[in-house]
Amino acid sequence: SRWAEVSRCASALTGFAEAALHWQANEHGHFLAEALCDSKWVQGPGGKSYNGTLRVGFVAAKPGVQGCDGHGAPCPPVMHLLGAYWKLPDFAADDAAANDAERMISHT
């Protein structure tokens, strides 16, 4: 399958190339882009400061009613929150040996 092929290629990559292949493996016509934002630093392992990532899961579903205004106007999607949690990146926010992505993105 296309997903298996792209996944094999992505496993040897990092950074933007890896992210692009994961996006390509999703065989759907819709995707969501997220902004890279700084968070309030929090104390993590060893007393070091980390720039955490808030992960939010949700489903955007089509409403079951045709025409919200009674004249066929499209209805906005119905949003269902699945949950949210914080993750810490792999490296502390002030770790000079790590690059920006390593100090902001959690791979665990």
Characterise the protein shown here.
The protein has helices spanning 2-10, 15-25, 100-104, and strands at 42-43, 49-50, 53-61, 78-87. It is 23% helix and 21% strand. Helix 1 (2-10) packs antiparallel against helix 2 (15-25). The longest helix has 11 residues, at 15-25. The strands form 2 sheets. The protein has a two-stranded antiparallel ribbon. It is of the alpha+beta class and 108 residues long.
Q: What oligomeric state is this?
A: single chain
Q: How does the major sheet shape up? A: 2 strands, antiparallel
User: Which of globular, elongated, flat, extended, rod-shaped describes the shape?
Assistant: flat
State the helicity in percent bands.
Answer: 10-25%
C-alpha-based Rg, rounded? 19 Å
Helices and strands, with pairings:
Elements: H1 2-10, H2 15-25, E1 42-43, E2 49-50, E3 53-61, E4 78-87, H3 100-104
Antiparallel strand pairs: 1-2, 3-4
Helix pairs in contact: 1-2
Task: Please outline what is shown here.
The protein is an alpha+beta fold and 108 residues long. 23% of the residues lie in helices and 21% in strands.
Characteristic key phrases:
108 residues; alpha+beta; two-stranded antiparallel ribbon; 21% strand; flat
